[in-house]
Write the structure tokens for this entry.
Amino acid sequence: MAKTALLLIDFQNDYFSSYDGAKCALSGTEEAATQGAKLLAAFRTKGLPVVHVRHEFQTNDAPFFLPDSEGAKIYTSVAAISGEPVVLKHQINSFHDTDLKSILDKQCVENVVIVGAMTHMCIDAVTRAAKDYGYNCAIANDACATLGLEFNGVKVSAEHVQAAFMAALNFAYAHVASADELIKDLD
């Protein structure tokens, strides 16, 4: 059986409205983390690889995820435990200038299940890069969070941003399903 790893991307305090002082609260981050925690528990129970990724900007002039700040720390409900690698990134793509691929390859990972934030940025980038590297990708759509956007005066709700990106990724890059469905697939 091909080895499957869980990638938890940027579940960091600054994205959670329930975190006092959040600098970039997203829509539905708490709910996404709850679903991500279910997947995390399933992976841990089965002894499957888990990799946490967290973003830190390299300057204090950044809008969020400031270096060494509480806001840049991983949210407690999905935090790493001893033995689980935490990849520090400074780019949108979790593979760019990090050891993520090396960590996955050392564990002979062929499949990745992706959860986290922001759907339209880091989830999109890591999924497309993982597919380009040859990994089979799955995304737990209910374990990802984003926010509303605006372009040329057109406001797009977080719900529609989420749907558009999940639809695009499901088309050619990943199997998109609920956390519960992906947990069943582990059996």
Observations:
- Residues 155 and 171 are 24 Å apart (CA to CA).
- The longest strand covers residues 136-145.
- The chain has one domain: 3-186.
- The helical segments are 29-46, 100-106, 119-132, 158-172, 179-186.
